[in-house]
Amino acid sequence: MVFAHGFGCDQGMWRHVAPAFEDTHRVVLFDHVGAGGSDLSAWDPVRYSRLDGYAEDVLEILEALDGPPVVFVGHSVSAMIGLLAAAGRPELFDRLVLVGPSPRYIDDEGYRGGFSAAEIEELLETMDGNYLGWSQYIAPVIMGVPQRPELGQELTNSFCRADPAIARHFARTTFLSDNRADLERVTTPALVVQCRDDVIAPQEVGEYVHAHLKGSDLVLLDATGHCPNLSAPGLLVDAMKSYVRAA
Q1: Cβ atoms of residues 54 and 76 within 8 Å
Q2: Angstrom distance (rounded) from CA 33 to CA 21
Q3: How many domains does the chain have?
Q4: Residues belonging to the active site
Q5: For the chain, is the Cβ count within 10 Å smaller at the N or the C terminus?
Q6: How many Å apart are CA 150 and CA 245, to the nearest integer?
Q7: Which structural domain, as residue segments, surrounds residue 103?
Q8: What is the mean pLDDT of the chain?
């Protein structure tokens, strides 16, 4: 079981979830290039200008593991990264668990992504002008549990630990991506996990992903925010275990 973190995070964000599967799976955690303990010298602005570059990294990791097909668990943008990887090399994947996925963050005709083009451009401009200030403001909003300010602070600290230049580049790659057409290419069974109130990936987005992924299941967690791996890990673990057991 391979866990992939979202934007501004690192593998530590899975510390309340991954241990629950250590008795039944070989658990593998990693940091995307530019995050956590990764080798910053490996970062390439051209390779990582598209999510496909991150998907290629995932495939390299799976090839290095040289084991059976994996259950890939991707949070936020890593859900799309996992989908791209699975579309390219389906034989390496047994199941996908997509936590808060979004194939497109910007609204389009007949599609609600959650943001207007102007809102995304303003978000990116604010990041460019004051990344630390942006992190301190947006992280608690993304976490979505104001009654637990320590979680918002943890996400803020995670954002602030990232290299600002790489983080800004990753944000553009993430928020300007449109992978809706890629959903039809995926044949791997998938579980779409959606929180009932998520400012980054509204419920309609989870329903869209489910509708366009053949053979997928959708679970709506009774949780708020975009990071149930921190704010509601028990609910996430339960949903994942039910899905894996049913395989």
Answers
A1: no
A2: 25
A3: 1
A4: 76, 198, 226
A5: C
A6: 33
A7: 2-246
A8: 93
